[in-house]
## 1
Amino acid sequence: MKKIIKIALFILFAVAVTGLMGFIYFEQGKQTIKQVVIKINREGEKGFLSEEAIKRMVSNYDSLPNQKVNQINTQTIESAISTNPFVEIADVFISIDKDLVVNIEEKRAFMRIFNRKSDGFYIDHSGNLFPLSNNYTPRVMIANGYIDVIPNDDKINIYDSVYADTHLVDLFELTRLINKNKFLAAQVGQIYVNSRGEFDLVPLLGNHIIKFGTMEDAGIKLDNLDTFYKKALMSEGWEKYATINLKYKNQVICKRK
């Protein structure tokens, strides 16, 4: 008998709690949104996105603060914002204070590509392609020259088969290797793909060209370049050579001006 009473009391308690939570949810749903809070997460103060751009992506944005909580579809707002090519992740929710919070992770450019027609696009840290912006130009590695790539709207990653015969994967990997070396990352500003399909590096300091060649032994070549810069050019001067050739195994061959 006692066991039956305990079960009955537990059921009554569960029903009461469920009813109370339902009532609270119903009452909260009738409350109105106080304000819309937009948060754009990125590395610096400036970026591809602005609050005004986010507002334009959300239909009836100005009327949102007057709408009731139960009239807001956060998933619809997330979907609308996520269509923007500069948005990595969009998270929209209603806070305890009844603020509609729009939390956005902005895409981070890893490198900028210009094809043979000078059409440009970015590649992010995951290898995804996205367009240039008129509002912001980040300081990243630039690659140009004989690059025959036209971005495909349905294929947005460099590892998609449509880009298999292009230089995108090699350019991405070479940039990654350069960026691992802080000294070279600060020194090398551009990768040029020449007519033979080999890579030339263009430094930010010094009027010379670095003939890198193919990706074979890429890590060793960059180590040799790092050593040469620190031991030779920093003592002899940055303007002494016209070319620095890394194409030959374990050698750095320079041509004077």
## 2
Amino acid sequence: MKSSVPISALLHHKGTALWSIAPELTVFEAIKLMADKNIGALLVLSGGKLVGVFTERDYTRKIALQGKTSKATKVSEILSNQVVSVTPDHTVEECMKLMTENRVRHLPVLENEKVTGIVSIGDLVNWTISAQDAAIAQMEQYIAGGVTA
């Protein structure tokens, strides 16, 4: 089932709460904030501009496995140079494709270089499941004679 629904619709449904951290703060501060908010990624903003996304995967691969300490390492030291982002007009399907191609689980949503949201693979999967459930319910109603063509 293809979804031509724009990400702006998903964000409207999800809400616009954004959590971010400054690049000069420590990885420990980042993982503490993520644990407090029960989230898997933080936007990294410097002067209001997106400079990266810090994820649980960054912590495990770039701190824990490399023998660094989270209290002594700044977020900026382990950020990737490449940030994959989308606009509110990108579709759910396009976002899933981008995530798969780039092996990322979170996509910041930018409008005129300003962050307006973030979507996770979980958000996209939940949206897709809900859309499929709604389509199935509508078909069942149609088959049962409850909806006219």
